[in-house]
């Protein structure tokens, strides 16, 4: 049985949702893969999960947890070449504008079960 661990790490959580035109979904996911790998390899990225709506496959969301400030993300990470290339390639695939939220964690209200999140 998996054990759970309470979490209250500092940092921020970035929640992004994009709406991709149906015919562009395979190309978007292909482009997303290399960006996912690059973001996941950033030392300050502590979690990166991607989700797809079963009712609307073009609705793709992801959650990134960062042990960094918003200033670092906007000043450094968002200006990385791989992010700029990804946006240039994928923004024309959007059916409507990207939705983005930056949130901070609430102390004492978080957990992850060991083994969850892989795969």
UniProtKB/TrEMBL annotation:
This is ABM domain-containing protein. Residues 12-66 form the ABM domain. InterPro entries: ABM_dom, Dimeric_a/b-barrel. It holds the Pfam family ABM. It comes from the Eukaryota.
């Amino acid at each position: 049985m998996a054990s759970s661990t309470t979490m209250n790490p500092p940092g921020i959580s970035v929640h992004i949702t994009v709406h991709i035109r149906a015919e562009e979904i395979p190309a978007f996911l292909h482009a997303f893969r290399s960006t996912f790998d690059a973001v996941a390899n950033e030392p300050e990225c502590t979690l990166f999960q991607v989700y797809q709506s079963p009712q609307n496959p073009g609705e793709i969301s992801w959650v990134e947890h960062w042990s960094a400030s918003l200033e670092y993300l906007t000043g450094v990470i968002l200006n990385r070449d791989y992010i700029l290339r990804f946006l240039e390639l994928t923004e024309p695939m959007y059916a409507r504008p990207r939705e983005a939220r930056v949130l901070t964690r609430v102390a004492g209200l978080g957990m992850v079960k060991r083994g969850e999140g892989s795969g």
